[in-house]
């Protein structure tokens, strides 16, 4: 009997990490015409900041922060006497999805405040400390991005069931019953949220997991297909071509 549990190696590395404490007076204007050459987390310790981007304006009061992606042009105005901010910048390379770091994000959670409140003048130059804080902030953003919006919270049981047991060949009606919904309503809400039917969503996860098994060198294509829930190789190849853009 084949029984393989493969947990792929994740490559996610940070370099050029640094943190600065900046104090400016009311009305000071900072302009970054081409954006910064690194990703940036900002925390307002005192006063208030206002950021201007091409498509939005974000006001950041004391005790809150903002994430600014690399290369995004913006202007920032310091509001209040002796406005004080902490700026943590870094470069990141990763073999996993980091699309959640591609957009501006306003931060007002306690977890975000706790990270920056732990930064002192004694550890602000400690590279390993800053690396740990950068990873902590990235993890925080990752978890925020995976939260299901309120209007789709009903389908959370099905999303969890498919994600955790993607190799099981359950029917759509089974997933709908997990959510306490009529199948027609469930299908509509699921497609609206994911852009896919429940089966398409499950198949995409299966293909991703199969590729990991094959790339690990521990499984043949046939074994990988079987382990992720495909009992028909012709169907496996059909789905594989679909999700890899090959017709």
Written account of the structure:
Strands 1, 2, 3, 4, 5, 6 and 7 form a 7-stranded antiparallel sheet that branches. The chain has 247 residues and is α+β, with helices and mostly antiparallel strands. The chain is elongated and about 65 Å long. The model has no long low-confidence stretch (mean pLDDT 89). The chain has helices at 110-117, 127-145, 156-164, 172-178, 183-194, 198-216, 221-227, 233-243; strands at residues 12-24, 29-32, 39-52, 57-61, 65-68, 74-94, 105-107.
What key attributes describe this structure?
247 residues, alpha+beta
Form type? elongated
Order of helices and strands: EEEEEEEHHHHHHHH
Q: What is the SS-derived class?
A: alpha+beta
Biggest pleated-sheet summary: 7 strands, antiparallel
Number of strands: 7
Helical coverage, percent range:
25-40%
User: Count of DSSP helices?
Assistant: 8
- Beta-strand proportion: 25-35%
Overall average pLDDT: 89
The N- to C-terminal Cα distance equals 34 Å
The whole-angstrom Rg is: 23 Å
Uncertain stretches of 5 or more adjacent residues: none
What is the strand and helix layout of this fold?
Blueprint: E1 12-24, E2 29-32, E3 39-52, E4 57-61, E5 65-68, E6 74-94, E7 105-107, H1 110-117, H2 127-145, H3 156-164, H4 172-178, H5 183-194, H6 198-216, H7 221-227, H8 233-243
Antiparallel strand pairs: 1-6, 2-6, 3-4, 3-5, 3-6, 5-7
